[in-house]
Amino acid sequence: MTDASAYDVAVVGAGPAGLAAALSLAQQGLRVAAIGAPPPRRDTRTAALFGGSVTLLENLGLAAVCRTAGEPVYGIRIVDDMGALLRAPEVTFTASEAGLDRLGFNIPNAALVDAMRMQAMAVPTLSLIDVAVTQVVPAADGVALHLASGSVLSARLVVGADGRQSICRQAAGISARTWGYEQSAVACTFSHQRPHGGISTEFHRPAGPFTVVPSPDNASSLVWVERPSTAEALAALPEPDFRAALEERLQGLLGSVGDIGPRAVFPLSGLSAEVAGRNRIALVGEAVHVIPPIGAQGLNLGLRDAACLADCVADARAAGGDIGAPDVLDAYGRMRRTDIASRIWGVDILNRTLLSEAPPVQALRGLGLHLLKSIGPVRRLAIREGLAPSFLAPRLMQPGVQKADA
Ligand SMILES: Cc1cc2nc3c(=O)[nH]c(=O)nc-3n(C[C@H](O)[C@H](O)[C@H](O)COP(=O)(O)OP(=O)(O)OC[C@H]3O[C@@H](n4cnc5c(N)ncnc54)[C@H](O)[C@@H]3O)c2cc1C
Question: Is 195 exposed, middle or buried (0-12, 13-18, 19+ CB in 10 A)?
């Protein structure tokens, strides 16, 4: 008789990265528990998900959410709005230039999580357990999880997808470096008069980027980075005043602004865990890396965590090994190290070049944009590497692994 409280894998945290990991691992026939309450409030964020992330969703049977809730993104335009005498040139990265149909889809986080939960309910080997985990106790042969309901579960491998304050990370004995930025982002969705044409626009401004990303129904999602006090003040403005401020910032790009959805403020911060796994616990998503919302990298990284972990677990099973063994977690850590470090570093440098008033730094940033504008191969390389690192191709991010649709 099997022990009903014993799982192959328990995923702690049912956000988008955790649910992606749970679906990816359950697809191998493993008995998986995804533990954590659904988000308590509606998330105002959307995530622009690029090539490999979209393929992962398709392979997990989630292609429909891209079409029904998402909007295709065909290009990314960077506009220098630093207010300097000499403006750097405007640069547009297009999917067609890279030989792609589209760069990806912009999908509301709430719709993505809802679709993932629906899909999880349809997978017989995957259980959704809607409670918090209060304690994580690793041992030599498995991990015990104490739930807020009073139950105790065990698993051979735990996936810590429990966000930046991860108790799984602490239980694994993994330290993390954290840092703050004197910036916060105002996020919301708004409708507008002119079509966005599937192009995302990032204005580079002295307080940080101001980005509008295509959303369905002639709307865009906004990530407006400012000094924290300014961001709070903007989010608290009466709607007509916020609309006026938004229209001024947009400089006519999208015409007049219509309906504005709920606004939320996200303080910018960074986190980098020392390793991605130890003591039968593998970390994914914001439990292992937090980066500012610049260049749409955070959840794309989290989905690559899920797909890479699935590869490492599949390889261990194929070799008849223990899925929570140290060599599996080491392999996962090696697979993730360069991708995570390079994205954290790249986003941090870009953000700091905007904040720096030093003329040489500004000149260097302008030179970078000039090079991207004028040299096609450099621009095409930037598009490809911006979408996903070329050295990494986890199986679930390759087309056609499974075409089941939700
Ligand atoms: C304004 C903004 C815009 C962004 N835009 C993009 C974008 O365009 N593209 C992109 O790729 N990324 C983007 N990101 C980043 C992206 O939103 C995050 O990377 C992603 O939401 C993180 O998902 P996660 O599952 O790792 O963490 P979370 O969503 O934080 O999920 C963690 C889950 O764990 C649960 N949990 C915590 N502790 C416990 C416990 N003890 N027991 C059980 N459950 C627990 C929490 O309740 C939560 O549900 C953006 C971020 C911001 C702030």
Answer: exposed
